[in-house]
């Protein structure tokens, strides 16, 4: 287990959060638990404070041995020397330092030095190495009882005294090593938890970044499909009105003003769409949360998701609105929608089919004004095939066509799941061909591909053999 219920996440000095576990248990253990906390001694690892602590430990250990009343001068010198060497070397060779100091420090009154050495060994070495070190330390220290004259009193007092002292020393030494192991384990757990929290913070930042990018792309597609298409139709109708024979000069000027305003609006819209589609820099060092480690996506991400971008809405255009779309485009040709009435098509798919067909018709009006257009939506297996094919632009200006009736309903009463219809050409012809391409935003076909791929479909486009253009998209009927 890496963390416990009740642990708090706190921002560290390096910006990475770490965990502080509140002290639990009896009051008598509170100080020991706090002392063993892996975060308590972080400030003592370097600097003058650690040097002072090391010197104090060495002096106390040496004073403990030198003050022992059973030690002679010669043996005390050896004991003090081994004590100092063992304590100094305990960080580089923890287990070896404890074993080497065994003869000198085995059975002193307070056992301070072996506790310090074995605590360090337990903190810095693997568990199996610590166990082997404890056994070796016990053997070497027991041998010292039989060798050094200073310890002969333990043997002379009888086997019971010897056994009890040895058992007490081994128990205290094992406890010191176990406490060091506890500190190491908690430090490793805290490091793992810091990495987990940092990883979750990175995942959350990446998820939010992806959601924002997805939302920006969705907004760019909607702006292009809704605004750009309508502005293009306004420009087409204004240009057609300007060139209509018999129109007075003031009407021509008004039509030219409308056409110029539509062109300017399209250029500004192109800049906005370019900015929306500009990729953001991926987050490199996300700010760590200090209150929770759970990954929470922004409301926009939860509302729109990663694939559908909120396309399924009650007010979204659907297949029943295709007749109105065809009439407003003013194309010459035919629209065929061959979808059974009983078929249930997911709303995101209907929305995508509508927008793709709208983009194809807009491009036909923009780049081939007056050309014959064949548009349709057909059920093939379990997919909807959306296609818009326009022929080449006519060589001469086409007859003017009346604009769509004002106030036309967006919900036609006729059944549009199996509909064919024809309309006349717009009043533009090739005379408008030099004006309309400037209305392009450069994002339409990219949006078509994104819409199709977001529904696990695909789209393709390109010129036809007769000089026209074809746009085709295949969408699964269920999103």
TrEMBL record:
Keyword annotations from UniProtKB, A to Z: ATP-binding, Kinase, Membrane, Nucleotide-binding, Phosphoprotein, Transferase, Transmembrane, Transmembrane helix, Two-component regulatory system
- TM stretches of this protein: 75-93, 99-122, 129-148, 160-179
Q: What is its EC number?
A: 2.7.13.3
The record's region (Disordered) falls at 395-451
Q: Does the keyword Membrane apply?
A: yes
Catalytic activity line of the entry: ATP + protein L-histidine = ADP + protein N-phospho-L-histidine
Q: Where is the composition biased (Low complexity)?
A: 395-408, 419-431
Question: Pfam families of this UniProt entry?
Answer: HisKA_3
Q: Which domain of life is it from?
A: Bacteria
Among the GO molecular function terms of this UniProt record, one is: phosphorelay sensor kinase activity
InterPro entries from the xrefs?
HATPase_C_sf, Sensor_HK_TwoCompSys, Sig_transdc_His_kin_sub3_dim/P
Q: What class of enzyme is it?
A: transferase
- Keyword Cell wall biogenesis/degradation annotated: no
Q: Which residues form a coiled coil?
A: none
Q: Name one GO cellular component term.
A: membrane
Which positions fall inside the Signal transduction histidine kinase subgroup 3 dimerisation and phosphoacceptor domain? 215-280
Protein name in the entry: histidine kinase
Q: Which organism is it from?
A: Quadrisphaera granulorum
What taxonomic ancestry is recorded?
Answer: Bacteria, Bacillati, Actinomycetota, Actinomycetes, Kineosporiales
């Amino acid at each position: 287990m890496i963390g416990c219920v009740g642990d708090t996440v706190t921002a560290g000095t390096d910006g990475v959060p770490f965990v502080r576990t509140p002290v639990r248990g009896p009051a008598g253990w509170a100080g020991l638990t706090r002392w063993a906390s892996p975060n308590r001694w972080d400030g003592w690892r370097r600097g003058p404070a650690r040097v002072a602590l090391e010197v104090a430990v060495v002096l106390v250990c040496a004073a403990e041995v030198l003050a022992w009343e059973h030690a002679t001068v010669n043996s005390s010198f050896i004991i003090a020397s081994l004590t100092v060497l063992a304590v100094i070397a305990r960080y580089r060779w923890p287990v070896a330092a404890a074993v080497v100091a065994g003869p000198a420090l085995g059975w002193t009154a307070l056992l301070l030095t072996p506790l310090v050495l074995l605590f360090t060994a337990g903190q810095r070495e693997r568990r199996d190495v610590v166990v082997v070190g404890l056994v070796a330390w016990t053997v070497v220290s027991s041998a010292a009882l039989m060798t050094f004259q200073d310890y002969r009193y333990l043997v002379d007092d009888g086997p019971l005294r010897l056994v009890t002292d040895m058992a007490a020393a081994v128990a205290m030494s094992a406890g010191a090593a176990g406490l060091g192991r506890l500190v190491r384990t908690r430090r490793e757990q805290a490091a793992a938890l810091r990495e987990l929290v940092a990883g979750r913070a990175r995942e959350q930042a990446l998820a939010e970044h992806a959601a924002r990018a997805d939302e920006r792309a969705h907004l760019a597609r909607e702006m292009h499909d809704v605004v750009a298409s309508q502005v293009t139709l306004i420009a087409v109708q204004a240009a057609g009105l300007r060139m209509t024979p018999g129109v007075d000069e003031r009407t021509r000027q008004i039509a030219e003003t409308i056409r110029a305003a539509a062109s300017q609006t399209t250029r500004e819209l192109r800049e906005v769409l370019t900015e929306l589609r500009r990729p953001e820099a991926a987050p490199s060092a996300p700010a760590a949360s200090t209150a929770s480690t759970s990954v929470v996506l922004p409301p926009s991400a939860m509302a729109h998701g990663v694939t559908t971008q909120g396309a399924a809405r009650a007010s979204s255009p659907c297949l029943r609105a295709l007749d109105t779309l065809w009439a407003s485009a003013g194309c010459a040709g035919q629209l065929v929608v061959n979808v059974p009435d009983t078929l249930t098509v997911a709303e995101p798919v209907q929305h995508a089919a509508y927008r793709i067909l709208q983009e194809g018709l807009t491009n036909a009006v923009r780049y081939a004004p007056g050309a014959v257009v064949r548009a349709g939506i057909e059920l093939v297996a379990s997919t909807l095939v959306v296609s818009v094919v326009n022929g080449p632009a006519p060589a001469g200006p086409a007859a003017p066509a009346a604009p769509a009736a004002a106030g036309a309903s967006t919900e036609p009463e006729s059944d549009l799941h199996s509909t064919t219809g024809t309309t006349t050409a717009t009043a533009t012809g090739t005379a408008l061909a030099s004006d309309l391409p400037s209305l392009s935003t450069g994002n339409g076909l990219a949006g078509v591909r994104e819409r199709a791929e977001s529904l696990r479909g695909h789209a393709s486009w390109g010129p036809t053999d007769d000089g026209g253009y074809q746009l085709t998209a295949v969408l699964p009927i269920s999103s």
